[in-house]
Protein 1
Amino acid sequence: MTDKIVPCLWYDGDGEAAAAFYVSLLPDSRIDRVMRAPVDTPSGPADTVLTVEFTLAGQSYLALNGGPQFHFTQAVSFQILTDDQAETDRLWAALIADGGQASDCGWLQDRWGLSWQITPRRLMALTTDPDRDRARRAMTAMMTMQKIDIAALNRAADGAD
């Protein structure tokens, strides 16, 4: 790893599966290194996967198989800025599959409990529009959504809904 700051994500034994899944979702992503424990640790016997270094969209991360003591909360989430509805739909479906849960305003939790915000760039543009009425209408529409619907946001911002 060459980044000075690397987020470490704590898993209960399935960090390698989580990292492999995440890197399948975005370009410029890969598994960089898998480290097996050289000795028994509180999270498992020697030779089990202890850490997985991976790159996700150019950013370094570390998955640590630390055991069942700690769990993710919504206090930390990862925001993915999407370019269109197709990318929004693809990432949303992939991340809620196999036990993930949809939430409000573009938020969800994946099957490991990690929180994500699937955020279309168009949402950001509309909610920061200098025309405060357009921004208000877009934000009001977004507040009623789980997965963000870009066409519905555009209609709301234009006052068509």
Protein 2
Amino acid sequence: MPSLPSGAGPHLLRRGRHLEWVTLGWNVAGVTVLAVLAATASSIALAGFALDSLIEIGASAVVLWELSGTGEARQQRALRLIGIAFVLLAAYLLTQSVVALSTGHRASPGLGGIVWTAATAAVMFTLATAKGRTGRALGNPVLLTEARVTFVDALLAVAVLLGISLDLLLGWWWADPVAGFVIVFYAVREAIQIFRVGHS
């Protein structure tokens, strides 16, 4: 861990916790909003993004737990659980996206999904950057890992935004399940990274 100026440690810990509480609050609201939007639009991408928000809630809880001083063994177990959750998300979305493409399932996206995913992308990119800086300053690998999860969340928001926008504006019905495949790719990659961290 890098040496910190006197008083910087507690200040950085408070900043890290604050960033995680903001992330947690946004995603708790997001799960509800996305569930309604996904059900209304019959959108696989929005449903997958809602599940990703649940994973982000769990990741934020892990970091808040770790920053409060819990042990490394419990931290590693919690990170492995997040990794398993990403694998389950990938399996669910892969199945749903394949079925949607093979059956020609058409979502009915609306403006609400576009507005929410665009706002989420902006918020998550900002939070990921701040968490990364704070994690590096603290030398905290858990906060750095969760910053990467938040960055992935932002990328997924962009992918979902693109998918539902193309569907809504151009009638490209296949763009919604294709966005689901993008989430599958990032979910698997994130799970691999988390498991590697857990075994390092």
Protein 3
Amino acid sequence: MSFSSYQSLGDTLKEFQVTYTQANFITGVDFTVPDEFREDLQFMIQEGAVDSSEFAICENLIYPVLKLVWKCYYTKFTLWSHRYLNCDANLSGFPEYILARRSPLGKVVFDKPYFILVEAKQDNFDAAWGQCVAEMIAAQRLNNNPQIIVFGITSNGTLWQFGKLNDNQFTLNSMFYSIQELDKLFAAVNDVFHRCELQLNSLVTA
């Protein structure tokens, strides 16, 4: 089954026997958003068809945010777009975005561990999380390291939700974030990237 076959969070959790919890684990790590970014985003929201499809949401609203934060971490991570992730016959497909360790062999090498999976849906967060959690489980199994916490982000472009998979427990962050409150949104995204960096550093020094 492909990731897109999982259309409900509850069904995915039941299929893989993952426990659900809810808590505010995102505390926020301050991030300075350039004025040029704010102006360009405002222009796109006012004048562009930014949410006419999932592809449009990815290109216009999700990727620009991820890219801006990733540029602070590019020496350690690669941000992959629509890269095939294959765990087994029941867990394979193309997540919207994957944050993975930057391979020592070069930027063109798709290498694990995988830390963040991102999924876009126009207005169905249950389906988005059903698919994203399946992707997170695949990443967790491919990482083959129970100490690594895998993070997930789902978004319809306007609202952003965050989750994490620790062993067989999935935690959905209780607070949602909005692209209308850029500073809070960027602080949340930067928080997750920072947590991934700390994990990677601990793996390197272990």
Protein 4
Amino acid sequence: MDASPGPRLILLCGLPGSGKTTLAKRMAREIPAVRLCPDEWLEDLGVDLFDERTRDRLERRFWAHAQELLRLGQAVILEFGFWARSERDEKRLAARALGIPVELHYLAASTDELCRRLEARSREGGQGTVPISRELLDEYVKLFQAPDDDELALFDTPPLGRRG
């Protein structure tokens, strides 16, 4: 593929098991882009993936780093999940203030499909994986604010030849 198309912020939105990491890894290779994944970093640092205080601190640090990379002309993928509309709005508005295009890739799947994927992922193991029960996933589904068509229209579309 050609050289990087320039700075671009890519937000991956979805619940656990929706395919964010798989998509992020593929996009990072193809674009190319820097991929920032809190789950992998937390695991590498020996931190419990459910430690919300540390996760919040890490995501704030990643966001500061992402803005530096964007200013330097690098494409960046944030693999945070972006469960809340307010989080997505914050990143979109901040990147636009820098003059940077922003994509939102929403990965949706039924709760049953997410459970199936999470069970398979737990069996396989791998970096940044932690068992998530059906009960916990049901709680996550209640908290998750899926983007609607009006919100999706606020984001830039991926360049031709690249779709999520």
